[in-house]
Amino acid sequence: MALPKIKDIKYFLIPVVLIVVLAVCETYPLYGRFPYPLSWDIWYHMRIVENFSNGYFTFDPVSFGPVGRIHTYPPLFHILLLGLYKILNLGGLSIMDAARIMPAILFPLSAISTFLLINKFYGKEVGLLSSFFVLVIPVSLDRGIIASPQSLALVLIPLGFLTYLLGLKERKYLYASGILSSAIFYTHGLSFMVFFISIILFTFLVYLSKREVKIQNFFIFTLITIIVSSPWIIQLLMHGVASNIPYGGIFKLTFYPVKLGYITMALSIPGAVFLILRKKEEDLMLLSWGTIAFLLSRNYITSLDLLPFRFIEFLAYPLAFYSSFAIFEFAKEKRKEAVFAAIIGIMLISSFPAAEYVSKVKPMLGAEEYSAFSYLNENSIKDNFTVASSWFTSPMLGKVSELKTVEGGYASGSWDYVKRSQDIKALYSGNFSTVDTYKTKYAYIGPREAAEFKNSENYLNASSIDKLYSTGKASLYIFWGGNYK
């Protein structure tokens, strides 16, 4: 087994072009429709990129004001975004433009990497259909239209599985798999969990089904991962590995077909059964991927509550393959015309939810909020002060206003995030005793704060705090110093 040679590239050209065209049609129009990136967390990542530009690689001076915090988010995505920004900036585009364009790059790449994995072991047709499903499954599209570290990890994960499987026969690919594993670790922690635990389960399943011990391969792969990842492992052990784990969010089983698509879920079950019956190494690898993603999506049952809803996004990729594999297994020895018509019909029906979703999606930052943040940028007192807001608003407010926030993006990346969260909640409940603790000069109330902190505006209006700015949805208050009622 080996990767395709240069002379075989023409074999991949048509499917790759089709994947790119569909993915770009889903993502790039959003760049022209909205002036802001779609997600909330990309604002945090943009600010970290600015930190990198200013020489701050291990310290985040703008989150958790006024003193900042050790940087504990993996750096690879930020390095990639910084590189894209530097290139686009040559044409006068901003970091925000880079963040808005990035989905049109990462989403097709994730589908292409999926195609490369599936094509190697199951053929071009199954690979192309799998990639199509990746691009239209609702929860996969939900991730694909935003720029995030997980989007980059979903490009790397299929390549990691591909090189690991090839490495079982040729050692050089095993080294490549270890490097890709490290790249995933440097990109996104939850993605690394899915990838690495899937490899562990695969090793176990190979032993159960074939009585073959692949422990040497796994040891080499793990050793390379640890060696290459060691700088970031040390960083986390020293400054926040425990606090860097996010929690929250549950999807009921009834949401799975809604998020993963009714057709693809229905087809994935016989597809998985066919793979179990075959028991080839590639089958066991893809079954391991789906099994681990599903189990992690149910981890709240064991009281972990480790973002179970997020793991459904990882489940979309192996499920896309199971569905495609089932279709071609059912189509064996059937009339080609009927099979072709059935596949086209399935693709069209599966496209409708994706098209509707893209037509309705909106950024999480509205014009009024952006205007309030801009006002703060232009009229704020320039000193080492902080702004109070919800954790959700914080990265957007901080990036646009260029001020420090009490709760920075990814609040769990600091040991005192629980206390800061409690102090912010107390402030919006009328207890201003911690204003001086964080040198808080401004408090913001927008839709998120109004929903999260009930009656917060009433508490602030009833105090001696002055309202600095107000629109229908956004208000800014200023603390002048002294005692507040």
TrEMBL record:
<keyword id="KW-1003">Cell membrane</keyword>
<dbReference type="GO" id="GO:0005886">
    <property type="term" value="C:plasma membrane"/>
</dbReference>
<feature type="transmembrane region" description="Helical">
    <location>
        <begin position="284"/>
        <end position="301"/>
    </location>
</feature>
<feature type="transmembrane region" description="Helical">
    <location>
        <begin position="218"/>
        <end position="238"/>
    </location>
</feature>
<feature type="transmembrane region" description="Helical">
    <location>
        <begin position="76"/>
        <end position="96"/>
    </location>
</feature>
<keyword id="KW-0808">Transferase</keyword>
<feature type="transmembrane region" description="Helical">
    <location>
        <begin position="152"/>
        <end position="168"/>
    </location>
</feature>
<feature type="transmembrane region" description="Helical">
    <location>
        <begin position="338"/>
        <end position="355"/>
    </location>
</feature>
<feature type="transmembrane region" description="Helical">
    <location>
        <begin position="183"/>
        <end position="206"/>
    </location>
</feature>
<dbReference type="GO" id="GO:0016763">
    <property type="term" value="F:pentosyltransferase activity"/>
</dbReference>
<feature type="transmembrane region" description="Helical">
    <location>
        <begin position="307"/>
        <end position="331"/>
    </location>
</feature>
<feature type="transmembrane region" description="Helical">
    <location>
        <begin position="12"/>
        <end position="31"/>
    </location>
</feature>
<feature type="transmembrane region" description="Helical">
    <location>
        <begin position="258"/>
        <end position="277"/>
    </location>
</feature>
<keyword id="KW-0328">Glycosyltransferase</keyword>
<feature type="domain" description="Oligosaccharyl transferase STT3 N-terminal">
    <location>
        <begin position="12"/>
        <end position="346"/>
    </location>
</feature>
<feature type="transmembrane region" description="Helical">
    <location>
        <begin position="103"/>
        <end position="122"/>
    </location>
</feature>
<keyword id="KW-1133">Transmembrane helix</keyword>
<dbReference type="InterPro" id="IPR050297">
    <property type="entry name" value="LipidA_mod_glycosyltrf_83"/>
</dbReference>
<dbReference type="Pfam" id="PF02516">
    <property type="entry name" value="STT3"/>
</dbReference>
<dbReference type="InterPro" id="IPR048307">
    <property type="entry name" value="STT3_N"/>
</dbReference>
<keyword id="KW-0812">Transmembrane</keyword>
<protein>
    <submittedName>
        <fullName>Oligosaccharyl transferase STT3 subunit</fullName>
    </submittedName>
</protein>
<feature type="transmembrane region" description="Helical">
    <location>
        <begin position="128"/>
        <end position="145"/>
    </location>
</feature>
<keyword id="KW-0472">Membrane</keyword>
<dbReference type="GO" id="GO:0008610">
    <property type="term" value="P:lipid biosynthetic process"/>
</dbReference>
